[in-house]
Inverse folding.
């Protein structure tokens, strides 16, 4: 199992450009999350999904969009990139199945480091 | 609401102990602890559900005082591999809340030889 994979690892955007950050998991997890982490800070939730076709906003959704057409994929779209979106983006997934404490564990991808100039 | 972690940073020598605290002003359903090495993704350590339980992971253990909405992570007989930034994540309320964790700002731990 590859776990959670993210592409690209690094990207530099110009102000106003758009891009999609890819996230794929091969663990058949129901729940998926997008976080951003600014330097020296904790993670903030951008969007999350509880299953294919179901997404909702997190704490900091402005400037982003998501879709979830399959269980495996959860892409994050940045429209009209701004310098404030310079950050490291992490995708995570968890099973969400009842019946044990371990179902709450979130598995993180390696991250995408984005710079907007 | 984002939980508050303290201290912001701690420097230890191998074999020393440390405590990291995580507190919230809201009633908590659970507290989650993760460790992040520089340039890497956060890695899960443990979960504590309300009920005042204590868990352990090797020589790293934690407690959860639901009355105080506070959790503490204990690093015992620290090893070089314990270096990293420790984050607590909290779920507020009485349910799992779709796992929407609120993370603290982190505590940087440096263990020196």
């Amino acid at each position: 199992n590859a776990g959670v994979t993210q592409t690209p690892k690094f990207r530099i955007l110009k102000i106003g450009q758009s891009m999609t950050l890819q996230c794929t998991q091969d663990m058949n997890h129901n729940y998926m999350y997008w976080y951003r982490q600014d330097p020296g800070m904790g993670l903030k939730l951008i969007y999350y999904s509880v299953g294919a076709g179901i997404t909702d906003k997190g704490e900091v959704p402005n400037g982003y969009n998501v879709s979830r057409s399959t269980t495996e994929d959860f892409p994050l779209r940045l429209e009209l990139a701004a310098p404030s979106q310079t950050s490291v983006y992490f995708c995570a997934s968890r099973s969400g199945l009842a019946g044990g404490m371990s179902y709450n564990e979130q598995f993180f991808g390696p991250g995408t480091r984005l710079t907007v100039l | 609401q984002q939980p508050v972690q303290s201290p912001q940073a701690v420097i230890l020598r191998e074999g020393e102990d440390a405590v990291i605290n995580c507190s919230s002003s809201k009633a908590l359903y659970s507290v989650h602890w993760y460790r992040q090495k520089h340039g890497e993704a956060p890695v899960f350590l443990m979960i504590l559900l309300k009920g005042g339980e204590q868990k352990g992971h090797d020589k790293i253990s934690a407690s959860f005082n639901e009355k105080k909405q506070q959790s503490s992570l204990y690093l015992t007989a620290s090893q070089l591999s314990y270096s990293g930034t420790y984050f607590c994540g909290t779920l507020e309320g009485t349910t799992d809340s779709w796992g929407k964790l609120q993370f603290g700002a982190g505590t940087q731990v440096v263990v020196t030889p």
